[in-house]
Amino acid sequence: MSLRLMGIKIGMTHIWKEEKFVPVTVIQVPETVVIEKKEAKKHGYNAVKVASIKVDKSRVNKPTLGQLKNVDDGYRTMYEMRDTELKDDQGISVELFSEGEKVMVSGISKGFGFSGVMRRHGFRGQPGSHGAMSHRRTGSIGNRSTPGKVIKGRKMPGHLGNNKVTEMGKEVVQIVPEKNLLLIKGGVPGCKGSQVFINKWERK
Fold it and tell me: What DSSP character marks residue 92?
């Protein structure tokens, strides 16, 4: 069963559980509805297509409206859950997960733009006194005349962050069904207000 939910990262806080201080990330799962069920005979695979984050239909383009023909409202985000079986009367909410369960969380990491090697790769830097003028620079990147080029994969300054990051084995500490909140132990990828996907995680 490939269950996954899309949520909005609210931020981090902490709770007390079993007389321990536990840092958690709060994720809110918006209203999610099933818009289509795909079958292997017709589509080649079994899946449930869902829509989330309700918006006014005037803010949805025509191709997307065609996919939302079976529902009355407009939605911003659509995704599929493959090999998932949901009953017709079964709602999609945080209650599909359970406390203590291990999950896999995916999101887009914070973007920091162009960064140097000390921030991007953790270089210790060069001397900071005695006339040195290359405090935070990369240093030597070549190997003399042999091989006479910069080796592929050399750690250099460049774009930092804004990549898809997936963290496995995150623990669901607490569920708040009335507010559709998931409290996941520790941090998760992304900034406040960003979209994250919570997936069932089965260790192989």
Answer: B
